[in-house]
Batch of 4 targets.
Target 1
Amino acid sequence: MWVFLVTEIMFFGALFTSYIVYRSLHSFAFAEASRQLDITLGTINTAVLISSSFTMATAVYYAQTGKKRMIIVFLALTILLGLVFIGIKVYEYYQKYVEHFVPGSSFSFPAPYAREAEMFFTLYFAMTGLHALHMIVGVGLLTWLVIFAERGRFTPAYHSPVELTGLYWHFVDIIWIFLYPLLYLIGRHLE
Amino acid sequence: MHTEASIEQPRVHYLNADYGWKSWLFTTDHKRIGILYLVSITLFFFLGGFFAALVRLELATPAGDLVSSETYNKLFSMHGIIMIFFFLIPSIPAVLGNFLVPLMIGARDVAFPRLNLLSWYLFNLGGLFMLYAVLHGGVDTGWTFYTPYSSNFANTNVVATIAAIFIAGFSSILTGLNFIVTIHSMRAPGMTWFRLPLFIWALYATSIIQVLGTPVVAITLTLVAAERLLHLGVFDPAYGGDPILFQHLFWFYSHPAVYIMVLPSMGVVSELVATFTRKNVYGYKFVAFSSMAIAVFGFLVWGHHMFVSGQSVYAGMVFSFLSYAVAIPSAIKVFNWTATLHKASVSYQTPMLYAFGFIGLFTIGGLTGLFVAALGVDIHVTDTYFVIAHFHYIMVGGAVMGYLGGLHYWWPKISGRMYPEGWAKLSALIVFVGFNLTFFPQFLLGYMGMPRRYHAYPPEFQVLNVMSSAGATILGVGYILPMIYLIWSMRYGPKASANPWPSTGLEWQTSSPPPTENFGDTPVMNVEPYDFPTLASGRNRAQLGSEPRPA
Amino acid sequence: MTEHIVPIRVYAIIFVTLLTLTAATCVISFINLGRLNAVVALVIAFSKALLVALFFMHLRYSRRLMQLVVVAGLFWLGIMISLTMTDFLTRGWLTYR
């Protein structure tokens, strides 16, 4: 699983590289555009995701100690938090759509940084979209785990699916830990 | 060699253990999966070859008279994309690697057999998308997909092709992942790292490249597809984007990709040189470490494809310097193989002929790589036929030769039959002659200034172009012959013993063809690699089933 | 897989630390530190990621090999970013007369 996560590092890494390059070229425009993002929602989402990592780690703990009831409880909590995250993201996307910040024909941003701001939003949607896709896959995997846990498949001797899914989930959390400051916080000090 | 009468082949082996299409399409046996890949990539090899034939046919005359320039763009693009992504990158790892990795390390299968089968299905799914693109008008961006042409202006099947490469890329990643875990965790008792065959070292290094590089090109091409479909502007200067960023991200994978293509072939050559000189490869550890060094250094040099793109000259200087550094481990390997020949008893069977071909042609290709790595020289020869000759020397004169040599060398193990040696030697010779006749003139053409990707050229270049096209015809014959006689040998070839060459290595300690579970008892690696004296004395029989001796 | 069982107490401590760091990075982002803003934000992000990796993902208790795999992945990402930036950061350096 770690080897697979390394491929994911490089997968997201290309987007991070693009972001770093463009931000270094157009820092002012990026800061302007970033301020349009809802920092409250972004911060709440970060807290939600960190909490879900906590519940995931706890679920692994109970898998290691064989407490079937608690495994299910904490997996379910993780799923719930993951869905909250996705829900908030959907709302944010909708907000951006209404404000005409979705790149494409309906994009509009006050001059003079309109074009570069569109680039920022392209990266914003690409990076958070890819991240959300991974979250959805993660929720799917967790649901699968709940079903298996319910059937009593996990014991202290065998619980590697829980651990491996945990690794995947924490990794997706780490991606967001970097996305949050890079997307939401860059221009705040200029307000 | 053994006579027919004394050859014992098992009654039940992996080929006849189960019958019916389901037993093949739902198999998790790594050996059968290797054969499935063999069929798939051979089909793509001939498809890519077909486009090459059309290219060379057009270039036989100076005027652009066979096809229009738009069509010509499609021909060379599809030749490149199919050959690179659907033949060269999978070839040795997916065919020979899948078959041999567990055998060589003494395991029963790879770490994730079902993932292995999924890799093959993904490869074919990608292939289907590619076929769709080919049949619906092709793609004309060149295999390099440079923006803004690919993202904004091309009106061919770019998105379908990108989907094809994306999916095939995952096949590549999963194969690499499987090999890394297998080699780390499933080696037989006594099989320490420095007792591994050099082929395994090469595949291990290749797998690292596959795992680290492929995701980057996957997302980069996805961004291009997104630009096309959603009218975004990721690489568009109008939005503050930079087409050179695309080139950076694309070549970050595509340069290491060429090492994915050539490293396994180098691994094969190490095996061939050892067996047919009956000696340990000179400087085993150096060769092993060179494979790793190539994998690492290969990631540091991608900018040498961009010297004239508009990237900063300082970056160009850095990349040029690093490109010279990456040549060093390759050179070490060539020196070591050559040194192995000293005072050796060399036998000139077909696989060894291919190995010799590799060493010579790879050396030429590699040296011309040093030419183009120099900033000043590259200004003149970039985007000319010089570069085309350079990389074909490595890819065809190197990688494909290694593939064919390995295919012949392990053919008895794979099929249980020997190929006809006379025809095989003839084919090797035809390939060698055809290859050089095709590509050596291209060095001269490029040096004299003929640009690449042009379907018409000044008349003074015609003689060399005709030579090149003639050579291509000969080369084609050389590739078709093995197709015929290898298939023929599966039915009519003489039966092969377990160790027909004979050679060291655990794969030769089991029958030809091997049983589905590879080995009867768990093998134990008791001797150092390429220990031919022990092999000759017959003591190697102790390898199966006894206590491991410490390294 | 790891046999080392980490007590929930440890997870809780890390969890609280992560939330604190999140609050910190959010608040600091409003203070004008010029170019340091980006540095501080990244340092905090790296620290949070490290805590998640070491404790939630058990990297602290894993075999050397796993730790090496992660370091290698990050190193490669670093190569991609830094060598690409050598182009973009030095574009203006060379002037022709």
Target 2
Amino acid sequence: MADSKKTKRAPRERKRLAGRLKDLVTNWPLYILLVPGLLFVLIFSYGPMVGIVIAFEDFNPIQGLFGSPFVGFQNFQIFFEGQQWLQVTFNTFFLNALFIASGTVASLFIAILLTELGKSVLVRVVQTVVILPNFISWPIIAMIALVFLQSPQGVVDELMTRFHLPPTQFYSDPNVWPVTLMILNTWKGAGFGAIIYMASIMGIDKEMYEAARIDGATRMQMIFRITLPMLRPMIAILLLLSVGGMFKGNTDMIYSMVGNNSLLYSTTNVIDTYVFRNVLNGIGFGINGAVGLMQSLLGFALVLLMNWLAKKIDPDYALF
Amino acid sequence: MVVLEKGKFGVGKLLAYLVAILIGWACLYPVLLLLISSFTSEGSLLRYGYQFIPHKLSVLAYQSIFISNTVPQAYLVTVFFTVVGTILSLLITFLTAYPLSSNKLKNRQWVIMIFYFTMLFSGGLVPTYILITQYLQLANSIWVYIFPSLLNVWNMFVMMNYFRSIPSELYEAARTEGASELRILFGIVLPLSLPAIATIGLFYAVGYWGEWQQAALYMTNESLWSLQFLIMNLLQNISIAQSIAQAGFALASNTVSVAPADTVRLATAVVTMGPIVLLFPFLQRFFVTGLTVGAIKG
């Protein structure tokens, strides 16, 4: 009896595989169109994955990928024995948490504020202006930050002198930077995020607000009892997606702002900038390969977890 | 959104308007201050700091930039790889998104997975660095700005979703008339998706314009620096700004007491930010629609 079940399953699966292979031939024009894209990801996305072996080697550019001596988990050991790993990992999580929290609150605030104010010229102007910072690159923002934070001469410095407060040496005091980076990150991203929330708010059924108005609800009550709860799935999904990225630091932002100013590393060095700076200086390829691998693996696991959670909230959330 | 009854203009609404204006101003003010400061004379910058209404105006910083070689060279390089990169990226994105949008492919889910996986997991910076420097020999080549960034998988999925929203009757009609896939792609899909192409093209262009990591990692040749990387060097190394400022100083040394090093930095930033900020009012509606489409598709 078991025999016939096995023989029934095998032909079906062989047929499916044959069908898939046959498809390559029948639809060959479409597959040809895919060749450039596939070639690209093969070289630039999957190619480096082969290089993951560096994490297990005492890598030497001369001996190359397959000539360098194999050292097992030694690179990981060295990283964890040093002082840096706790600091850069903490910074990565802490800064990301700050960014996510402040960004979500700011985006929601702007979105609700602008929708409540209705459709006027002012609102449309503000709506346009608010997404402008998102298209300004981090090096430029770093230049603008210099205008504000430079001590002496900077705008903040002048303000503090006027109010007889002791000036802050931004570029030599690491403790002010988590908040500073949070403010800059929010400045750049809040407007962009607000647009996404505004699109969702547009989709809320107007009749609910009508019913509430007839029942005598105030604007604030309507915001907190209707708008925010209706936005909860969207907020939750965006939050989960952001948390999925918690392991990735933002090299673009942090390196543009901090550069090689080692005074600020203690609060701003994240995993990515740590690896980036080492690669720039051409040191510790093996160790940095190990760090990068860990980051990718943990990040992957986290993203999978968060995607799965997001699907539970809204089954429609699926890329395909 | 339910608006207050006409005629009722309470304190609450006034406050809300004020906050909105404040937010808008907070977004604009830093950019404006940068602009104004770049036109401030170096002397008044050093004495009075960054004022919204400067004591003394000067275009010496801009003159310095255009006389010396550094900024125009970086501009040339950046414009080249932005234009070429955007065109190539749009082409490859377009070609890849179309087959994936078609239900005809039996292996569709598998191929999508091949692309999607690259968004979840990567080899990391070190293997990429080895790949680009040792195997692809792209160091100190202008193509290192373009090739690794050719296809953005997220952009490709957005375009793919857009193609799927085209009614399938159009595809069917064309296929029964015997049109080849290529003809369908360029004859039907292309004209219908111009707004999506424009939006994604803009996203790619802004991405290319902002590239600097490639310069930091792979360029020892200074004449191949991108504008953004030049900005970073101006920020971190005052001597670069000073050498540019010397050229302008030589021009005006009888009227000016100090070389415009600080203002040169600001002026370079303005000039780099320029195209995006200038084009922004005209292009912003593309960004907004692109965002909302992307958001709704998740």
Target 3
Amino acid sequence: MTDSTLLLLQAAADTTHAYGEFPVIGARAFIWITAEVHLMFAAFVLGVPMFAVVTEAIGIFGGDERYDRLSKEFTRLLLVAYSATAIWGAMLVFGLSTLYPRFWAYLTSIFAPSMWLYAALFFVESFTLYLYYYGWDRWKEGRAKLGHWTLGILLNVWGTIVMFIANAWLTYMMSPPRDITPTTDPTTIKLWHAIANATWMPINVHRVIANVVFGGAIVGAYASYRFLAARTEEERAHYDWMGYVGNFIAMSALIVLPFAGYWLGREIYQYDQSMGITMMGGFMSWLWVIQAFLIAVLFLTGNYYLWIGMGRIPGAERFRPYTKYLLIVLVLGAIVWGTPHTMIADSKELAAMGGSHHPFLGALGVMSAKNTAVNLMILTTFLSFLLYRRANTRPVVPWARAGTIIQGAMFAVAAGVVLFYGIRGYFVEAIVRIGFSVYQVLAVLSCIVFVTVIDILMARGAQSLGAIRWGRMPPRSQYALFILAVTFTWLMGLMGFARSGIRQYWHVWQVMQDTSKYAATPALGYASKMISLCVLIFLSLVAFVFWLGGLAEKSTFVATGESEKGARHVGH
Amino acid sequence: MWATNAKIVGIVLGTLALYTLIANKIPQVQSEVPQALSLGANVTPEQLVAAGEKVYTGIGGCTTCHGLGERAPNLLTDEKGQGTIGARCGKREPGKTCKQYLYESLDNPTAYVVSGYQPIMPVMTKQLSPAQVWSVIAFLESQGGTVDVSASDIPAASAAPAASAAPAGAGGGLAGGSTDPQAIIQAAGCLACHKLDGQGQVIAPDLTHVGSRRDAESIRRKILDPASSVTKGYEKLAGIMPKMFGTMMNAAQLEALVHYLAAHK
């Protein structure tokens, strides 16, 4: 145990109060806001480097300089965002140490060594970022460029480790190892034992993917703002393209996010079934209806953006008639996913409903129906991307017709597997039914992988039906990107509340009880106001960061000639 | 550009307002901190019912099984055409009134098991105070029946807050902190499901020779994390053993119990 830990423990023991108070808004609201806004900035500074290093790689290996410039443009924004992340992180630490000193002393007595490592890695990460950004123009050719790209990879590695460390602290609060009890002396708990708790790795994986989604969405919002403010066709074309790339990355990562979420949920159930029931069927049950609504907005808006985008692609009119069918599947899927099922209800509500489940809708609210719905929505969104991708090309390989038929058959088989197990799930026991979701997920993922591989092979030497007319997008398409960014951010806040709220009146689940006046977990109405406030603070600050970025340097849009040169294969 | 900025701000604020509005329109449920129940001698049936509903949906954990429609009978809704629990409780066992039947269900749940369900219900009188038990009975009676529970049903001792109803982690441990394994087993209600030395139920694995199939470490882990392993032949009951025993005991009690059981070769 370090001296600093001993000092903290001593301070905690000496104080007569385990809790402090913050003026006007209270201690809990202060911690809520600082933690959430810090987390949003952290997601931004972790997600955007992933975005940057991928786009830089496309620039290097694809020979399209626009991607390299796009990557640099976003790395510039990171410089200011890092400061904001650190400031909010410092506010959170000060808040915890002054408002929740007993809990903070407990946490530091277990995790102190990892906290020092965290600080050291943050330092290394910051300097890697400076090297990455300021070395951009100096190391732009040959091996030096590869070395520069390696810096970008390192930036992601440091950032990911930093996130994993912080995740260990918060997941320990959720799922401390079962041999740790309220009487366990925290100084005797082995660091790795506390880190490698039941929900640590599922949260790690979930957050890595979610950060990619978030980074893509914020990039999309930035691009849409610059598009709307553009004064020239070239500038508009550049930011239209950037918005497409951001949305593509966000939606691609979103497709796999539910699978990571499912894993996390399963681990929570396995760790403590009562916690799982609290989360899905207890006082938080209505939260998932709101989540379903938000996911529906994301799927519908993301697809809407793609469908509008097809208007600027010559040849896309061939596929336009199909969009209404895609829309029907998405809407029906969203309705099923949002169907309430196991809800906390009083006797009057139960009587009004005619039972613990609605006689008709209850059948749609079970996991068999919901898993089927979400898998079909994912397949539909993938089909939208596929149509978008093929819009201005006509394959010329001899096996093109056969390839398209095989692709269609793969979609049909995947949808068939999803529907088969969805229906069969009603006739088997719960433990068997849970296993069915694995087959559904595998069918959808296999379809996505194999259809994409076939499509890439089929696109070789494909006949172009005309270049994409970047910039020819109505303003409503750009507002859709804003809605996506706001919704992603709000969803992040909502899921943060779900993850943290299932601990209820425990700082550390069944180990350290919250005895403050804020121990009760608030209802969703109050939580939603807090989430909206956090999102507003974050987006306002991000807007300021973007504005600063614009002041520092001119945008990196390219001239018409370069735009046309790169246009044909963008999105292909 | 100002018009565009205004539109963007409008869209952002409008989207946030929409989500906030929807979240405020749905039923609002706050997770309260469980409180020890204290009822006076003049408690009314209405107060008992209100207190019972809180226990039922809160610390009692009843909704974990009752209400999901698969593990245990639905109590607040019609069950196979027999009405809600208040309407059907008096017809379950011949010669037993509704109140007697409900108390028996909480005190000795294996005495009568509803057809089609497994005998998995724990002994609730071991986990809840008498005041909490009787308030739950009053609440269940109110679901389609007549509430005849009164203060006279509740032992005088129950007027004081029950130690067992306090949230885990409050310290002290079961049985007043005693390290006598048999006192711990009695207080925790282990024999409601397990058999040990000829006593107790056979719902869960017999513990008489548990030391021959599990070492001390395995027993400790099983108590602290019941889901960590399942005894062969009891797979269908996986997840039934309550998780809170580890937090109800202090460390000395846990070790005393572990070594006591490990010695049962």
Target 4
Amino acid sequence: MQSIPILKMGSFLLVSIQVDMDDRTAMSLQDDLTSAIVKHRAKGVLIDISSLDVVDSFIGRMLANTAAMARILDADTVVVGMQPSVAITLVELGLSLKGVRSALNVERGMELLKSIARDTLAEADQADAGYES
Amino acid sequence: MPVTKAESISVRSAGEVVGVRHLVRKWAVELGLSLVEQTKIVTAASELARNMIDYGGGGTMTAEALDDGIRKGLRLIFEDHGPGIPDLQAALRDGFTTGGGMGLGLGGAKRLSNEFELKSAPGEGTRVTITRWKGAT
């Protein structure tokens, strides 16, 4: 079993999956990521899957579950770099990854995470202002 | 259908699903399948290999390279001697699962293949055969 490194960039976590994951590796990545979100108080997680030439229902479910767990821990998840052939296959398989945000590449994914963080802050500020008046 | 090459591998543990994917990818590339065709049959193989482990107690996958002079294809046979499937129609339905999965394995593998055959009887194990032809839609 290989361990997949999780990098911290400001208030975001960055993961680039470079290996064909077996089930145990996928599950431990899910566990490691949720722990890292809490440990680093991360506001967002970016998962780069551009090196994956296959995403089956197990890995797809891991991605969806990770996003759901991150949401409960107050962090947003963006999956980036999915290969077109993988996207075609996933939809035909019946897995649409509802609830998982995606972006074309790492750069756009980071922009998306930053804009979500800004919007959330603005909303919080508005809510605070409303409370005072 | 002339089989030009065949190979069987045993699939006993979840870790071996990666080996199945690699073998199927290698053969799909050798047969000249397009990238999308490769991805579809590798994904289907991954689902069926995991099914064998989760529900059939492990089994074997046999890969066969097919060439009838007109077209080339890849046939994969997944065979286990597990408890078998009592209701084949239900097992093929999306979302149906008796385990902890998503219930996409059999139906998904069928959609990702050009030909699909499921044979099973309670107590006699399960055999799933899928074929992907080069250039077929």
